[in-house]
TrEMBL record:
InterPro entries given in the database record: Aminotrans_II_pyridoxalP_BS, Aminotransferase_I/II_large, AON_synthase_class-II, AONS_Archaea/Firmicutes, PyrdxlP-dep_Trfase, PyrdxlP-dep_Trfase_major, PyrdxlP-dep_Trfase_small
Keyword Acyltransferase: yes
Source organism per UniProt: Enterococcus dongliensis
Protein name stated in the entry: Glycine C-acetyltransferase
Subunit structure: Homodimer.
GO molecular function: glycine C-acetyltransferase activity; pyridoxal phosphate binding
Signal sequence annotation: none
Superkingdom in the source lineage: Bacteria
Membrane-crossing residue ranges in chain numbering: none
Pfam assignment, any one: Aminotran_1_2
Domain named Aminotransferase class I/classII large: residues: 43-384
Amino acid sequence: MSSKVLDQFLETNLEDLKEKGLFSTIDVLEGSNGPIITVNGMKMINLASNNYLGFATRPELIEADVEATKHYGAGAGAVRTINGTLDIHQKLEEKIAEFKGTEAAIAFQSGFNCNMGAISAVMKKGDAILSDALNHASIIDGCRLSGAKIIRVNHQDMEDLEAKAKAATESGEYNKVMYITDGVFSMDGDVAKIPEIVEICEKYNIITYVDDAHGTGVMGKGRGTVKHFGMQDHIDFQMGTLSKGIGVVGGYVAGTKQLITWLKSQARPFLFSTSLTPGASGACIKAIELIEEHPEYVETLWENANYFKSELKRIGYDIGQSETPITPVIVGDEKLAQEFSKKLLENGVYVKPIVFPTVPLGTGRVRNMPNAGHTKEMLDDAIKVYEKVGKELGIIK
Ligand code: PMP
């Protein structure tokens, strides 16, 4: 039996969430998260997952996972700093560093706790963090945890960044200043202006941190947004996830040996939470090898995304300014976005509505994530549904 106070709190607040339309139900997939998924017995084209290269269900990764599990066991047995560092973790970190073009890397159990751990290990009370207004929730939470002063920078606004970088560094108020940005922004698919960021941050001696969750496996022939711009030697923290393009689970920071040594001794999720499973580590190594040896996975992702985007445009949709495979279909009104995704779902296309407060009011949308696992037929089928539903709802002519 739970306490009365808790019951009351939950009842009131759950009601409140539902009234505000902020309560999200959770769909259960019957089977894997591949290009076709089954939900409530209905097969649908899956355009909602972050599985950019289709690696979540790739046989080579599954095999590598099983092999590592058989060799090392189901779990790592301890946190990294006690005796939960297996040689497969070390191999994964060496692989990430080589892939990202840095001296060293550290692997975490997820991208979320990587941001929580890495930001707070370096930034402290008395420091300041300049943070793009559309940064991911895990960056926001990592910044809050650090105790540093958080200064929001208007989204991708280099003039605002320069002004705030100048003010923060010249005020003499802070011991050190960091700028954090997503490499690829997950809602609009726009890409951080890395060369301009580097120029400003080098001018004011500001630490740079790029969260490339949506760039890893996608940009720079899979090596990320920083590599795409050839800026590996100019970004201090190349952070990313192993859960999207890589297809498994985990997070990482790639950087100098000294930085990684510091993070391994200070980042709290590394110190106090059990390491990645051997199976996940083995599958991540295999994923990076596949990207290195087979450029066609990343190429197929971009071909599929470009094809899907041009088809959506051809039939009359507003797909925003995305520069990456992230493909929003913007309808504006929040209720219309909900109705739109519901109809798409009923017609066999699985996408999710994204509305305020996740995106600005009046820019309601459904977000599509075409990936390398989709066939042209699947994308064509999805386009047919988009055409039918869009006309029914009066979104397109
Ligand atoms: N950063 C960004 C920009 C993300 O989009 C995400 C994933 N939603 C994360 C961090 C967290 O990554 P993970 O799912 O691996 O915890």
